[in-house]
Amino acid sequence: MNKKYIITAAIVFFGAVNQSCSNDFIDVSPTENIPESGIEIYNNNEGANSFVTAIYAKFLDWNMSTFAWIGVTSIVSDDADKGSSPGDTGSDKDILDALNFTPSTPSFKELFASNYQGINRANQALKYIPQLDKADADLRARLMGEAKFLRAFMYFTLVRSFGGVPLVDHVPVAGNAEDTNMTLTRKTKEEIYAFIEQDLLDAIDALPEKSSYPAAEVGRASKGAAHALLAKVYLYQKKWQQAVDQCNLVTGYSLTPNFIDIYKVSGENNAESIFEIQGSGGTAGRAIQQYSQVQGARGTTGWGWGFATPTQGLYDAYTAEGDTLRRDATIIHKDMILYDGYHVGPNVENKYYNYKAYSSNYRDQASTDTNIRYLRYAEVLLIKAEALNELGQTGAAIPLLNQVRERAGIADTAASSQATVRTAIWKERRLELAFEHDRWFDLVRTGQAQSAMAADGGKNFIVGKHELFPLPQDFITEAGGLSAQNPGY
User: Which of 149, 299, 331 is nearest to 228 (CA)?
Assistant: First the structure.
């Protein structure tokens, strides 16, 4: 979708939003109070579009995509340290880094609340768009598909993070006891996954292919994005054949020949891109709030806060594989000349920084033009390879793995047995997808977390506890016994 359009429509639609805090921990009040009698002002194509634009806009917010999200996906893992200055804790990033978090750790409240705020916007879109009978019928159907894709995306984040969570599938009615219970009562993770699957199946039926969108609509959810996300959802549940089937339906994409080009502005929404969050730079735009600044190099010749610094273990994993191409496109180091000619001097505060978050055009500004790449064709190849290998079709899995390795300029895998290919695929996911917000979840789902965290400075991953993050204490208190805390917390 056009970046300027996101900003403009979001401002127009939410100009009158009440920003006061809700008493309820899950914010279930309407994003904007729309009386039934007032819905007519949205009864046109632009009005229908504005409901879904508002969901995309949520992904630009600080509490959704920036400090907390970086903390609970990168800093907590073996790919990143807290970074920054020793005395700057980043609120709780030192706690996340050390695996000492508790239900009161602020980042989990941000993670939980922000996704429910986005889900609330999706539920409003799904409530009101069918009422807009003066808007184009095909447009309304597509927008409903986008809303369901985005709702599924957010529930996937929640279920991977917390396990079972409340299933808020419509805009609650104030004062309705059943709706209040809905917002405070956890469903099982199996129920959440089933809901995600259905939303994505509905989205697949409603969405066009990426190639069908005009240039002004680049970045919108597509049929390919829904197939790819559903494949990933099946992967996490070990539904191997379903994952393969969905990967086979992701068509029309190809690997970017030069890996680093993916992360330049010129590489946004390219032939490899399946879904990414759009940001725009400069004072007239609206970025993913301070996403680049938080992770930018700190100190002399630096431009940012220096958080989420790549670990020595990650750097060494690339080097051990002979993978200098992806290493040097993923990790900024001291005394390095970047692709745009900028020299990161020898006196920046930390040894390494996240190159994938770098913005050339708006290096030292809070509003940058960096996008977050969430689904790429390379990952679809790796999902299919992993699923085929688990189905015993190792010979079919190896060429898919090798496609990703060949683009990285490294030799084909020497692995040949199911066990060694499994390990090779897991390793490849780390090297290919570093800092794309999957590493922690990959460690947990594959059972590698305890050993990986022990290797990362002797950190203690407690089996039976750390597979899930703690639900925020504020939510547990508000639930008043309707929802129990995760084990170990």
Answer: 149
Token code pair at residue 456: 């990362």
Quick check: 305 and 293 in contact, CB under 8 A?
A: yes
DSSP state of 271: T
CB 318 within 8 A of CB 39: no
Q: The dihedral of CA 229, 234, 236, 240: what is its sign? A: negative
How far apart are alpha carbons 59 and 271 in whole angstroms?
A: 22
Amino acid at 12: V
Distance from C-alpha of 219 to C-alpha of 59, rounded to nearest angstrom:
13
Gap between the Cα atoms of 412 and 414, Å rounded? 6
Instruction: Read off the pLDDT of residues 415-432 as tens digits, 9 standing for 90 and up.
Output: 999 999 999 999 999 999
Task: Please name every residue paired with 333 in a beta bridge, in sequence order, or none if there are none.
Answer: 352
At residue 352, the 3 state secondary structure works out as strand
Question: Would you say 207 and 149 are in contact if contact means Cβ atoms under 8 Å apart?
Answer: yes
- Decide the pairing of beta strands 273-277 and 343-344: unpaired
36-50, 111-125, 147-161: lowest mean pLDDT where?
Answer: 36-50
The one-letter amino acid at 150: L
C-alpha span between 273 and 47 (Å, rounded):
28
Q: Residue 408: how many CA atoms within 13 Å on its side-chain side?
A: 26
> Is-contact 147 204, C-beta < 8 A?
no
Joined tokens for residue 225: 């994005």
331-333 and 352-354 strand pairing: antiparallel
CB atoms inside a 10 Å sphere around CB 445: 17
Which 3 state secondary structure label does DSSP give 135? Answer: coil
- Amino acid at residue number 237: Q
Contact 189, 166 (CB under 8 A): no
Q: How far is CA 477 from CA 25, 118, 419, 471, 482, in A?
A: 9, 22, 45, 10, 10
Say how far apart CA 454 and CA 186 lie, in whole Å: 32
Q: Which residues pair with 348 in a beta bridge?
A: 299
**Count of beta carbons in the 10 Å neighbourhood of residue 212:** 12
Helix (H) or strand (E) holding 8: helix 3-13
Question: Do the Cβ atoms of 482 and 184 come closer than 8 Å?
Answer: yes
Burial class (CB in 10 A: 0-12, 13-18, 19+), 61: middle
Q: Which residue has the tokens 């899930």?
A: 468
Cα→Cα distances 101→93, 420, 453, Å: 9, 34, 15
CA distance 418 to 439: 22
Burial annotation 149-170 (CB, 10 A radius, 16+ → b, else e) = bbbbbbbbbbbbbbbbbbbbbe
Nearest-10 Cα torsion for 416, 422, 428, 434: -170
pLDDT tens sequence across 461-489: 999 999 999 999 999 999 999 999 999 99
Q: Which residues contact 194 (CB under 8 A, 6 or more apart)?
A: none
Q: Look at 3-7, 66-70, 191-195, 307-311 and tell me which has the smallest mean pLDDT.
A: 3-7
